[in-house]
Amino acid sequence: MTATDPTAATIDPTEAPAAGSMPRRRRRLVRYVLVAVVLGLFAVFAVSEQDGLRSAISGIAHADPGLLLVGLTVSLLAVVNRGMLNRAAHHAVGLDTGVASMTRTAAVGFSAQKVVKSAGAVGLAIFIRHGRRRGHTPGAVAAACVLSAAASFLALGVLMLATIVALWLSGGLTTWWLVAAAGFAVYATLVAVGAVAIVRSRTWARRLWGWGHAVGRRLPIVRRRMADPVPFPEELFDAVAEARRRPAASVRLIAHAVASKCLGALMLAAAAAAVGLPVTVVSALAVYATALASSVVSIVPGGLGTVEASTASLLIASGASVGAAAVAVALFRLLDLWMPLLAGMVMGRGELRTVR
Q1: Would residue 242 count as lying in a domain?
Q2: Please, which pLDDT band fits residue 17 given cuts at 50, 70 and 90?
Q3: pTM over cut 0.85
């Protein structure tokens, strides 16, 4: 005969608070407060800058429709190219994917990344979830995402180098650009050395994983969420090493990554030309490289605010009026951010709400 707890019968499980309900309510309250603050700031800005907003709306209405169509076409090409880039990354690790399915996955992942600033975690969750439907293991899919991120980083270096060379040839190279290029070169060298060491040596990869795990365990937020040590991802390491035996796929991957940066610069050039701003290849490269760097270092999802401010400042510094620069930036962000974001949300059809 076993003893029973006399208080057990008095507890109604339906009356117990759901686990995690309070944190979820707090997060929802924080989101509402942030939205209210943003809307309030926008209202204050709209009231104080009525003339500027009227001129911006008028500028958009009078923009060249032919150049806007060119920009829209380039934006759609960028969405498809993003899918081709991730398809090449999957092929590099031995995963077979179709163009249409990977374009959809990449579009949904792009939207998730722009909505939630998570250092790639949300986008990775999208790719892993879609990969499981195709029978792909999470480790191999994660390796493909690592390769696509590395290719994008390499393409950013190519864009910076092209910008420096173009500015030097045109006589527009400034001290600021030299300092920025030197800092990026040092950072890229350190990342490249670390990446090579990790890919070529399983011992070094395990050692760095252990060091990172030890440092992470010292952080309170990580210690609360991670009760047990996380084992070294052997499958991910093997999949990345597999890519070394497929150089053709790696070359295609880098080519699509560089094409992605070129398409972004073309969108900026089309948006600026649509409102009558004289944009050269050199200025388009310089302004887009700055906008891209601003979006990378920004803590705000999608680089909202920082990209617009830096892009408008550079256009104004190059001789554009405030109204024309504002219209050009608005059109550029529509093509570069909002159109792909909308495309990913339509393709996802509510999936972003369920993936955490």
Answers
A1: yes
A2: very low
A3: no
